[in-house]
Write a structure and sequence with these properties.
The complex is a heterotetramer, with two copies of chain A (about 350 residues) and two copies of chain B (about 325 residues). Chain A is built from 13 helices and seven strands. By secondary structure, chain A is an alpha/beta fold. By secondary structure, chain B is an alpha/beta fold. Helix content of chain B is about 35%, strand content about 20%. Chain B starts with a strand and ends with a helix. The relative contact order of chain B is 0.12. The chains are: A alpha/beta (about 350), B alpha/beta (about 325). Chains B and C meet through helix 4, helix 6 and helix 10 of B and helix 4, helix 6 and helix 10 of C. The structure holds thiamine diphosphate (2 copies) and magnesium ion (2 copies). The site of one magnesium ion (MG) has 6 residues of chain D, from strand 4. The site of one magnesium ion has 6 residues of chain A, from strand 4.
Chain lengths: ~350, ~325, ~325, ~350
């Protein structure tokens, strides 16, 4: 497994990224964690529909996001808010989506990120199709698709991997192996040693990386992105990480995993190790942390305010989103509606 | 007898089936250790063991296909699909294999299995978690489709489905899982797959619904009754095979009908019901059969959910229109 | 103008689209080198090149999902599914992704793509090769479904589908592919998605059908006409969005309607049409709306095919019943 | 690639099967080829619905079939008549199916073979489910499922392989790689070097065998069957072979492959090499061949006669096959039917 930063903040080998970049990645992880914390709180207060925490997976998401060009595409899931944000998805829209508002999916036209996929497995092939379209258009954009360990059991994973390999599309498959598909441990989901090992069945490159190591994830993704951009085709990256919280706010992990396991992963926290690394290098201070925290909270608070201040979605809007032009049936339903 | 919610009644049905028939096994995502996302299988793995209750990979086509194989191999599998919105990857297995093996083998093989699918909205869930696409299942020859709306029916229909020699889809109304309690027999019993249940007798108008919308339908019946309208209420319970004679004998009597479902209007199963009514009762109809349904839209996210779900008012309104007609 | 079969007209439409819009690409199983199992894409790869016409692996979900991605990425993909019976593995992509991206993204993204699906029986094909499950597509909000029955409509509707800003399923009636020839304009033209086509005017009864069954419906109209019945014939052409006003204005005039389709009765799209007619025209109806459909069975193999397919006699019979009613 | 008999009839290594067994396998292949020949002729005369020839694939099918116990299961495809027959499916029923008669699927209860699957990919998971049921029932039956190279592109292949590995079901996956999915060559279907290589992504054993070599296929399948029977779980076998005829009688191979390719494979004919082998051993004579041919033709002729003598399938039968008991709607449709 490829790694660069140990859990204690020491490095495996000289980091191929600058201190400044490391600080920036750290700041992003702090901001993402603030979003996660806030969302969990709001969910408990009944202000969100459902929420799937990514705590523990910040390094995998921020590291991968940092490997992309601003016009690259991201096609990811309900658990990928940090990745989506790193690729340009504004917090306020992500938050709006979580309150149960379709307008959260209305991304700025400058941002090439799809609204998070809720179905498991179906979206990876979209990343293949988009990448295919980009190549047909003669552009060199890359498409990164993110999904969980559980998603690799779906037939759609297989078809997406195969299409990407067959048509040599510039697609990067990022599997965040966080140990579980809800309650079902990855050790039971497959008899393969690793998820990365699944790549060879498609004649594809597969790499395994410590997903709690932001530098390693960044470097591995950067390589895959570069290969894809140069016409070298797709790559499967398995980022080994852990879902620290429950699956969603409706789930009770006590039914299927030991606290001791979660505690062990707490020690491998993706933020902690970077803080320690920076601290050793004299690049982390409590004041800077306080500054980051304050700014993060403020940014997230603004996003929440924006999302919650959206006017009530209207009845007509709901019907108007089905087609570019509403059909006669929809127009009639708008007219005659007794809600 | 025990006072049970619909969810508990389903759990008891599965428990009873596991106890009384060795061939019964359960499979699905998170149904083992976690007891299912709606806890319908809660405690069953602990009680009946790992060789009766299986967690599966996230692969709905695989679940349905494996259930098919298990059934052909002599078991009585009961598969859970986590939400109706995730049943579509299994659609091919259901229509092309599960529903066809009896025909394809001229009765040599059959697939006596059950697929349980929680369906419907009303809990402010995420996208794909509120679907009501019963029509795509009720159109499949070789398949049966039941939709209980009460705890007692839930247990009896689920046990009947498990006993049935042919494959049965059991649609479970999510928002009724814990909405009401009812006295449910503790013993093993079945409710017949097929007949509608006459829930209330009346002479002015027949309200016809199934599953989740029975709640609003019952309320609308109360509201109408308090306005002096004599309302008959039918809980269809089984979409396939459809009890056309049960429905038409009621409408022949009242001359008026309102069909209520949560699915979008166009192509919804209410079309079948309305078409059948006019085929059999045209000359008795005093007004057009009304349909009160979801709009022709995708089920919306939480903030718009109230815009979508057919309301008691809409049902009352439609009934009133038939009375004026 | 050229005298073309429906199959040739589709081929010309694709050729024209490939020539006039760089964003159009075709993908599907065996559509390249082999020109498709029905030869609808014959010669197109040779003419337009390998980067316009792609053979794909045998993976229908992948085909639909890749088409979705291609469309989101700015192309205008036209996917072929080899037979309707093999479209079900793609159903999840169609209902959960293709039809929803506009809604999910509040118009930021859309999936302007076409999925062509040959459907229907009558050629003595193997199992799964004769399906008529249009109802499961017509029930999906966000999707459009067209079903041409003439060469001229086939070209015009396919080109309209390719132009359409939303996803369109084009159902192609297999047994009409080469059944008749018609003068078809050589130029680029479109037929509006939506309106029914009034094929014959009459005053006694309206025959309503689409796609493959139009052939038997036209014959039945001739037979009835020769018995002195004045028959109106509607080719629905578009199942979604459904032209309810076009249908009801005809039935208001004639007072009688017979709906003809090949799919099984229960849950077939004829239920929607009949329900809509009685909603709008109950007081003008002189007899129940009749449905002449496939039986509630799986489409049988060759030796029983004639048992299944609705015959001219059955249509005439049903129309006669409405005249007696 | 594992092989035992060379195309010229020489052996790679001492055959682990007896001469008597080899003669028997040869006789079966002759009989199968007679069925194929007859079916092609009947199709041309319009007496069959469609027909998918297995010419060139007799060794793969007869070899695999010979590895099974009489109560083992087979779940195979439209192209697997020889395999199905080897597992007990009577020719007459196979033939009835091809005439377009559902009664062809009504197997004797002593035979554990499913009617041929027409959809590509969907049936493999059935073999997993049946095998699972057999284990739950405490029986040691094995289930062999056969499919083509094209089927490995379907998501259902992936899910079936994974379920079999996860639940360690006694399933043998036999992929007859015959070079094409209709017109699409296997070299384009996947970027994996071999189909067998796909097994490792499931933590499964994968073997590649010369599918035109009946002895090699038999031995490889026997090993996989033994492992499965003993609780060792599933195996993927890739039998490399070639579809000599068109995909079905509606297909024109001239559009996508060169005659020279087909001619090359003609030299690797699965029957020819066994004939040469036996001839060298003094175990093949022209008289014996004539005897085999005559008997085969006679057996097939009887099957055809039986199938074609079946009474016209009735309308009621069609409706009565939907459920064990017909529904009210079906009874009404039987009563009221104007056909
Ligand atoms: C097709 C489909 N099936 C089932 C579900 C329900 N479900 C939601 S998340 C999940 C587990 C996914 O696990 P994984 O891919 O590892 O992602 P994670 O949640 O761990 O990030 C399941 C089964 C779904 N959303 N979509
Ligand atoms: C799900 C599905 N998609 C498409 C088809 C149409 N079809 C029939 S055979 C075939 C090719 C299958 O190739 P392969 O698996 O290699 O088997 P072979 O015919 O070569 O034996 C296709 C695409 C089908 N029958 N089922
Ligand atoms: Mg996971
Ligand atoms: Mg093949």
């Amino acid at each position: 497994m490829f790694s660069l930063i140990n859990p204690d903040g020491s490095v495996v080998e000289r980091l191929p990224i600058s201190v400044q970049e490391t600080r920036e990645l750290y700041a992003q992880m702090v901001e993402a964690r603030a979003y996660d914390r806030k969302s969990m709180a709001m969910q408990r207060q009944g202000r969100l529909a459902t929420y799937a925490s990514f705590r523990g997976q910040e390094a995998a998401q921020i590291g991968a996001g940092a490997a992309l060009r601003s016009d690259d595409w991201v096609v990811a899931t309900y658990r990928d808010a940090a990745l989506n944000w790193a690729a340009g998805y504004p917090w306020r829209l992500l938050m709006a989506g979580r309150t149960g508002d379709e307008r959260g999916g209305r991304l700025p036209t400058s941002v090439n990120v799809l609204p998070p996929s809720i179905t498991v497995g179906g979206h990876m092939i979209h990343a293949v199709g988009i990448a295919w379209a980009e190549r047909l258009a003669g552009r060199d954009r890359v498409v990164l698709t993110s999904f969980g360990d559980g998603a690799t059991s779906e037939g759609d994973f297989h078809e997406a991997m195969n299409f990407a390999a067959v048509y040599e599309t510039p697609t990067v498959f990022l599997c965040q192996n966080n140990g579980y598909a809800i309650s079902y441990p990855v050790s039971e989901q497959t008899r393969a040693e690793t998820i990365a090992a699944k790549a060879s069945g498609y004649g594809m490159e597969g790499v395994r990386v410590d997903g709690n190591d932001v530098a390693a994830t960044l470097v591995a993704t950067r390589e895959a992105v570069a290969r894809a951009r140069e016409g070298g085709g797709p790559t499967l990256i398995e980022a080994v990480t852990y879902r620290m919280a429950a699956h969603t706010t409706a789930d009770d992990p006590g039914r299927y995993r030991e606290d001791s396991e979660t505690e062990m992963w707490e020690e491998r926290d993706p933020l902690l190790r970077v803080r320690l690394l920076l601290e050793k290098a004299g690049e982390w201070t409590e004041e800077w942390q306080a500054e980051l925290d304050t700014r993060a909270e403020q940014v997230i608070e603004e996003a929440v305010e924006w999302a919650e201040a959206l006017p009530e979605p209207s009845f007509d809007e709901m019907l108007n989103r089905m087609y570019l032009e509403p059909t006669d049936a929809l127009l009639e339903q708008m007219d005659g509606a007794v809600e | 007898m025990s006072e049970l919610t619909l969810a508990q009644a389903l759990n008891r049905a599965l428990d009873t089936a596991l106890s009384s028939d060795d061939r019964v096994i359960l499979l699905g995502e998170d149904i083992g250790r976690a007891g299912g996302v709606f806890r319908i299988t809660d405690g069953l793995r602990q009680k009946h063991g790992e060789r009766r209750v299986y967690d599966t990979p996230v692969a709905e086509s695989g679940i349905a296909g494996a259930a098919f194989g298990l059934a052909v191999g002599g078991m009585r599998p009961v598969a859970e699909i986590q939400f109706m919105g995730f049943s579509y990857p299994a659609y091919d297995q259901i229509i092309n294999h599960i529903s066809r093996i009896r025909n394809r083998s001229a009765h040599r093989f059959s697939a006596p299995l059950v697929i349980r699918i929680p369906y419907g909205g009303g809990i402010g869930a995420a996208e794909h978690h509120s679907e009501s696409m019963e029509a795509i299942y009720a159109h499949i020859p070789g398949l049966k489709v039941v939709v209980p709306s009460t705890p007692r029916d839930a247990k009896g229909l689920l046990l009947a489905a498990i006993e049935d020699p042919d494959p049965v889809i059991v649609l479970e109304p999510i928002r009724l899982y814990r909405a009401v309690k009812e006295e449910v027999p503790d013993i093993y019993y079945t409710e017949d797959i097929g007949p509608v249940r006459l829930e209330r007798s009346g002479s002015d108008v027949t309200l016809i619904s199934w599953g989740a919308m029975m709640k609003e339908t019952r309320r609308a019946a109360n509201a109408l009754q308090s306005q002096g309208v004599s309302v008959e209420v039918l809980d269809v319970r089984t979409l396939s095979p459809l009890d056309r004679s049960g429905i038409s004998s009621s409408v022949k009597k009242t001359g008026r009908a309102v069909i209520v479902h949560e699915a979008p209007l166009t192509g919804g199963f209410g079309g079948e019901v309305a078409a059948s009514i006019q085929e059999r009762c045209l000359y008795e109809l005093l007004a057009p059969v009304q349909r009160v349904t979801g709009w022709d839209t995708i089920f919306p996210l939480k903030r718009s959910e109230a815009h979508y779900l057919p309301s008691v008012d809409r049902i009352v309104d439609a009934a009133t229109r038939t009375l004026e007609g």
